[in-house]
Amino acid sequence: MFRRKNDDQEPAVSPDAERTERPGAKNRPTPKRREQEAARRKPLVPTDRKAAAKASKESAREKRIKQREAMNRGEENALPPRDRGPVKRFIRNTVDSRWNIGEILLPLMLIVLVLMFAGSRVAAIQLASILAVWAIVMLGVIDAFFLWRRTKKAITEKFGDEPPRGSASYTIMRSFQMRVSRMPKPQVARGDKSWE
User: Fold this and answer.
1) Per the domain annotation, does 32 fall within a domain?
2) What is the pLDDT of residues 83-132, one digit of tens each?
3) Burial level of 174, CB count in 10 A (0-12/13-18/19+)?
4) Where are the transmembrane segments (predicted)?
């Protein structure tokens, strides 16, 4: 049991001897724990604070850019809580797939503002431009009202439930925004009904 090995047995293989590669094996020596811990160790307070702050800002900026790109694509996990869910996606697609009178309101107001300053001497131009703005506002409100009625009916038919609270204002606010400024970005083209 405690006998010495005979000298005629094979000598131990030296570590410098050639190793044969075995499939499925890692084929390298296991690193020492001390070396691995030393490689992972970082100081609590960085020695170069300016470089650390710059790296932190850059990392946060990259995260924000990725988050914004995901939100623009309409990825559900990147959306804020008010935009999440299949009902809100349905509302966005409904509004984005049609022309809305409310979305021409802001460009029209800019044109009216220019006309008011340019034609400040002519009272008829000012009156006509103000009446045009109010007419578009009224038409936009009427259009948004009928849009919400149709959307509410479609939501009830598709999901079998009443739309959640705030859906009416969500629909109306989106219909009054210009298409390029909507967030999340429109995922459907105008006139496209394939998503329904």
Assistant:
1) no
2) 889 999 999 999 999 999 988 888 888 888 787 777 666 777 778 878 88
3) buried
4) 99-118, 124-148
User: Which tokens go with 33?
Assistant: 């724990």
Angle at the Cα of 182 (from 180 to 183), degrees rounded to 5?
A: 130
CB neighbours (10 Å) of residue 136? 17
Angle between helix 123-159 and helix 86-96 axes, rounded to 10 deg: 140
Q: Which of these, 89, 65, 64, lies nearest to 76 by C-alpha position?
A: 89
The answer to the question of residue 196 being in a domain is no
Q: Produce one character per residue of 84-104: b if its CB has 16 or more CB atoms within 10 Å, e if not.
A: eeebbbbbbbbbbbbebbbbb
Cα–Cα nearest to 179, from 70, 105, 69, 121 = 105
DSSP 97: T
Does residue 153 lie within any of the structural domains?
Answer: yes
For 40-95, the pLDDT digits (tens) are: 887 777 778 888 889 889 999 999 999 888 888 888 888 888 888 999 999 999 99
- Residues 144, 165: Cα–Cα separation, whole Å: 17
Residues 54 and 138 in one domain: no
User: Does residue 22 belong to any structural domain of this protein?
Assistant: no
* Domain around 74: 46-78
